[in-house]
Amino acid sequence: MPIGSISPFRPTGTVSLAASSVSSNVALSGGGDTVVVTNASTVLAYIRFGSDSTVVATANDMPVLANSRVILSVNSLIANAAAITSSGSGTILFSRGDGSIL
């Protein structure tokens, strides 16, 4: 999916996850084929998506740099997200919707 103003991101819901060096998960809110993941912490985080609340993130999953965001395409079966930090703790935001971001 291209990043830019071709199809502006239209959020339908955002959830916050308090992440630490132990995996935790959260149910996503809203709907759509895009999730913007914002790592508001000062440490590297790893994320994983799943269809149920048993999803667990490990250091082998998708990295999200500190103080940054990524936009990912997901399908309709994705209902949950998990995150783990490389050390310490921080907040990870998952915003679901459609489109892309600048």
What do you see in this structure?
- The chain is built from no helices and eight strands.
- Helices cover 0% and strands 49% of the residues.
- Strands 1-8-3-6 form a four-stranded antiparallel sheet, with no helix packed on it. Strands 2-7-4-5 form a four-stranded antiparallel sheet, with no helix packed on it.
- The chain has 102 residues and is mainly beta.
- The mean pLDDT is 93.
Keywords:
4-stranded antiparallel beta sheet; 102 residues; 0% helix; mainly beta
One letter per element, helices H and strands E, the order comes to: EEEEEEEE
What class, by secondary structure content? mainly beta
User: Termini separation (Å)?
Assistant: 12 Å
What is the count of β-strands?
8
Strand order of the largest sheet: 1-8-3-6
Arithmetic mean pLDDT: 93
As residue ranges, the low-confidence spans are: none
Large-scale geometry: globular
User: What is the alpha-carbon Rg in Å?
Assistant: 13 Å
Give the helix level as a range of percent. under 10%
The largest sheet is: 4 strands, antiparallel
